[in-house]
Amino acid sequence: MGRVVLKLADDISTDVIYPGRYMATVLPSETPQFAFADMTDFNGALKAGRVPAGSVIVAGKNFGCGSSREQAVSALKGHELTIVAHSFARIFLQNAINLGLDLVTAPGVEAAAGDEILFRGDTVVNETSGNSFPLVKLPQARQAIIDAGGLIPYTRERLLHAKSGDSHN
Amino acid sequence: MGMTVVEKILARASGRPGVRAGDVVEPAVDLAMSHENGALVINQFFEIYGGTGLDPMVWDPSRVAIIFDHRVPAESAKTASNQKKVREFVAKYAISKFHDIRGDTGGICHQVLPESGYVRPGAVVVGTDSHTTSHGALGAFAFGIGATEMASVWALGTVLNVEVPGTIRVDVTGEFPPFVGPKDLILHLIGRISAQGANFKVIEFHGKTIASMSTSGRLVLCNMAVEAGATSGIVPADGETARYLREEAGVEGPQQATAADPDATYEQFISIDVSSLVPQVACPHTVDNVKPVSEVAGTKVDQVVIGSCTNGRLDDLEVAAGILRGKKVARGTRMLVFPASGRIYAQALRKGLIADFMAAGAVVMNPGCGPCLGVHEGALGDNETALSTTNRNFKGRMGNPSAAVYLCSPAVAAASALEGVITDPRKGRN
Ligand code: SF4
């Protein structure tokens, strides 16, 4: 269960999520301060610790379009936000899976700021409005990376398997 | 069942007789490119090796390319230190395709890679940059990945869990009218299918117009394929690709070309006749907000930018210089020109184009990304308007969230610089 803290439109680009001028900052320990830096109120709330872990951002189609910058993911992950969108842009989706940012694709989801959201099996439930929306599961290949705890441990396993001559197949 | 070009490339790279859209493969990587964000890749690379007890090893240092372009020369101590860290890594791991900040071999990654002959038809190319799609212009399957995924590639030499994308086939016919070209074509296509129209898909370009288009123009199309959400754009390699590789990239020997099978399965077909196309402009703040130039003509512009991995090549500079020659940039408008690479800069210098720009009042800057991503030089003031040949106009893109960015071709940019307002380049020139 999480509260919707931000409601966004379609085509939210990585320039909005993490403006290019902060790209010299790369470490996941340092990027969260610049999450949505140009939306000064929301950025302020994040930095002041007024947005609890597990809070939800609801967005339209194509969330995370644009640049491949991974800071856009590590910055949101640092605040332990969950992103529920109608759809995600490819590189952002893959980066989120790789780093373990919590993403939910729900093509018809409707929610407003302040609503309470619950994830139950294959549905997203808006507890406030009483409506449920089907969510789209990740393809199995991508789920495998999440199950391993992200791409770093997943790659590590591969390296160790290769080293021990143990075929992964 | 026939295969698309990308299906064939992925089948070859993953050692299978055939693959189809939706299959999951682990293709071997032919070229892995990063820029300044190599600093984060290095960090993640050591994270992967941490705790394994293994010596960190780059799978094949000759297949890794690192090109400094986003902030060159460094604009801050922080960037300079990141660049230093990458330089040290490059030396230690003997990364050979490294392009430092130099006037001769430096430039924007998406120009340096093709002009250096690093990109070959049929190759799998990954880059920690979304515009890696550009390299599809040479018949490669090229796509953007994040830094952690690149670290995994450096360690393993393969991309894990790649879903074979479906393909949209775009057939282009007709001859471009004067002052209309590849940039107008791709803006028109993005406007038509939207910024999400090709999400998770490849755009494969065909047709007479593509066959007679230079590699430089094809790079514009594939570069911006990602602005329609595409995983990649691709032009199947042909005689022009072979010519480019031989004459402009210095690659000897015959090239293997991968063609689509005649019975390949496409998810969508789009036909475009460019003979009636007019100059296009993408309006703030999304790339798919595309209008014919006539609808925005007269909009005042504070800054005109010509350059970037989209339109900073020699033919772009020639078109712009041709329009500016002997005239002056309007008072109240600044014009910045960024050649895409040192090599292009030198060519433009020999052709007298740099002198044309300077005489017109434009400022010619060093090759690199410059104002395209708004972190370095040429940032916009509050509520200012820019007209640019770059590829993105997202809010805040040029360093100021209150500014507005319009995207266009070099011809529209140059004609507008003279008037100080968005101008149809055909006006008075036909
Ligand atoms: S010129 Fe712009 S779009 Fe191209 S690589 Fe540089 S920052 Fe990216």
Key attributes of the depicted protein:
heterodimer; A: 169 residues; alpha/beta; Aconitase, domain 4; 2 domains; 7-stranded mixed beta sheet; B: 430 residues; Aconitase, domain 3; 5-stranded parallel beta sheet; 18 strands; 32% helix; globular; binds iron/sulfur cluster
Tell me the overall shape of chain A. Answer: globular
How many individual domains of chain B? 2
Number of E-type strands of chain B: 18
User: What number is the mean pLDDT of chain B?
Assistant: 96
Largest sheet of chain B: 5 strands, parallel
Beta-sheet strand percentage of chain A? 15-25%
How would you characterize the largest beta sheet of chain A? Answer: 7 strands, mixed
Instruction: Let me know the CATH homologous superfamily of the largest domain in chain B.
Output: Aconitase, domain 3
Instruction: Give the uncertain stretches of chain B in residue-range form.
Output: none
Determine the oligomeric state from the structure: heterodimer
**Which fold does the CATH topology of the largest domain in chain A refer to?**
Aconitase, domain 4
Major β-sheet strand ordering of chain A: 4-3-2-1-5-6-7
Small molecules bound? iron/sulfur cluster
Walk me through what this model shows.
The complex is a heterodimer of chains A (169) and B (430). Chain A has helices at residues 14-17, 40-47, 71-78, 90-99, 140-147, 151-163, and strands at 2-7, 56-59, 82-85, 102-105, 116-120, 123-126, 131-134. Chain A has 169 residues and is of the alpha/beta class. In chain A, helix 3 (71-78) links the parallel strand 2 (56-59) and strand 3 (82-85). The longest helix of chain A is centred in the C-terminal third of the chain and has 13 residues, at 151-163. The termini of chain A are far apart. In chain A, 46% of the residues are buried. With 430 residues, chain B is an alpha/beta fold. A five-stranded parallel beta sheet of chain B has the order 4-3-2-5-6, sandwiched between helices. In chain B, strand 12 and strand 13 form a beta hairpin. Chains A and B meet through helix 4, helix 5 and helix 6 of A and helix 2, helix 3 and helix 5 of B. The structure holds iron/sulfur cluster. Iron/sulfur cluster binds at residues 69-70, 108, 110, 129, 131, 308-309, 369, 372-373, 390-391 of chain B.
